[in-house]
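Can you make up a polypeptide sequence alongside its tokenized fold?
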Amino acid sequence: MKIGILQTGHAPDTLQGAYGDYDLVYQRLLGGHGFEFAAFAVLDNQFPEGAEDADGWIITGSRHGAYENHDWIAPLEDLIRDIVVQERPLIGVCFGHQIIAQALGGKVEKFDGGWAVGATEYRVGDETVTLNAWHQDQVTRLPENACVLGGNEFCKYAFLGYGDTVWTLQPHPEYDAGFIDGLITTRGRGAVPDNLLDAALNQLAVPNDNDEIAEKMAAFFKKRR
């Protein structure tokens, strides 16, 4: 099965030596399941020919806002809608979660409650999962066909589903403690309140459920439809 990675951001240069860019981060997250990968840096206007170029798709995180005026946003939204129409499985993470909601009629904006950073608990169905967060933007109005699958008091629309083929999540199952530590150093100070960054640093050793979510992502792609 071929998974297309729609890359909407680049990892900080100081982290790429250890982790690679975001395309490699996702290949590592979903490794071991027999997938073939093809990456498209859409933020650099590197787009696939169309939705049929992969069997399933994943949209990465980004430092950009879904509502910002970049020349690649509208073509990405068009591609999202084509993927949905063709009923190809699609997963969105953080920015990916947001841009899918926006493309399908929802609203994304800076949350007036501020930032979520580091190890964060979410209620998903009948279980609680811990994943790393790094965002201020949120989905604040749902598309008509969105189903809320999970969230918490700070981010009530943190996990969304659209029919049987689209699954999105606000937190980052691809970020481990070392990556969060690096983001705090390279992008956090001066942008995110220090008290939140310091709290996240103190929570770096908290166990996360990255592996569990990665398994669910792989199963979602492989699901017989």
The chain is about 30% helix and 25% strand. The mean pLDDT is 97. Residues 73-85 form the longest helix (13 residues). The longest strand covers residues 116-124.
